[in-house]
Amino acid sequence: MDHFDTIVIGAGVAGLTAARLLSNAGLRVVVLEARDRVGGRVSTERRFGLATDLGASWIHGITDEPLADAVAAFGMRTAEFTVGGYQPDSRPIAYYGPDGTRLSDADTRRFTDDIHTVDATLRDVVAASDPLDSYRDVTEVALAAQGWDDERAERVREYLEHRSEEQYGVWIDDLAAHGLDDDAIDGDEVVFPDGYDRLPSRLADGLDVRLTQVVSRVQWSESGVIVSTDRGTLAADAVVVTVPVGVLQSDDFAIEPPLPEPVAGALGRLKMNAFEKVFLRFPTKFWDDGVYAIRQQGPEGRWWHSWYDLTSLHDTPTLLTFAAGPAAEASRDWSEQEIVASVLTQLRRLYGSRVERPTHVHVTDWQDDPFAHGSYAYMTVGSTTADHDDLATPVGGVLHIAGEATWTEDPATVPAAMRSGHRAAERILRRAVPIEQVWSAP
What we know:
Elements lengths: L1 E8 L3 H12 L4 E4 L11 E2 L6 E2 L12 H8 L5 E2 L12 E4 L8 H23 L7 H10 L5 H19 L21 E2 L6 H6 L5 E2 L4 E7 L2 E6 L2 E10 L3 H4 L5 E3 L6 H6 L1 E3 L2 E7 L11 E4 L9 E4 L1 H4 L3 E7 L1 H5 L5 H16 L8 E4 L13 E3 L6 H6 L7 E3 L12 H16 L13
Parallel strand pairs: 1-2, 1-11, 2-8, 6-15, 9-12, 11-20
Antiparallel strand pairs: 3-4, 5-7, 9-10, 10-11, 13-19, 14-17, 14-18, 15-16, 16-17
């Protein structure tokens, strides 16, 4: 049986970050990856000659962000696109009222001012909330405090519902009150015209990465670990497990003995979301000029309410929308044609006969991905922000869990994945390591 200093399970950004730092320190490290590629939920498709990021897309704020430094060091091209955090007004956004008519600039300002007013109230309400309160509970308290008429309150209420869906892919009643505590953007957001997957490709350079190796069991004791795969068994002094929460919770991935507290409790209070992307490329651009996004208010926008203009990335008319939360769950078994028809119906309410059939379509399917079981993790009602860090508590001094769900400050992001991999490496090495060594020689 091959023996290593450390086995890393998963060749996503968290796993590759840990592996690079441990390898830089002279340890013998192997990375086991179930897929036939590196990257995990960083996945870029080039089916039509254009890079389309099916998984992670953004860096949500590049100020003082190590991931942005890594991207720059690797020479990856970026494009500013600051609406990824579902901000109401960070960049020009075209809002359409319930009747399908675009709001005037004055009406838009009044609406976005209302959102900021509720958000200011919401901070204190969330801070004082009960552990079993949902995001719905706290937003209703914040709305009631304004004393607005029903119509005014309803417009903001549905915005908050959509925020829960677009930020975490979950219906507002199912998200913990603290589930959006990390909803802050520091600096511009950027996307990647040439594809986000260049990041994990560069991180994997020089590492012993073994693809199409499906891990089924991790056995740990204070003396080390044994990892079973469909290709055989390996042993190591330590293991870094970076598979998504959905895999950790599945019957196909066993950890023996079972995870102790507080790790087990934290894992049980997190859940994978339902969040799918729908990319539509058109022959011509029929929508508003000079806007980053289009948003529909009212009941007609229950499912399809936000579209993002990605035309500038490749000079090809492109809109991105999301099937999030209930919409993703209800359309899970729909064909691509059914999803496109549903989206176009809503777009035609706004733009009429100018809406043509798309020339190319990409629809993701993370819910049915056996190596993910969803796009990323969210905090269920009863969860606390501490659950993220608790999930990463070292077990027996040999087992370390890392990944986007294990970082409190900015979970569900690639920066969280990188930072969690850095933390796991430091814990194994038992010393501080500059995170810059992820993208540069020590």
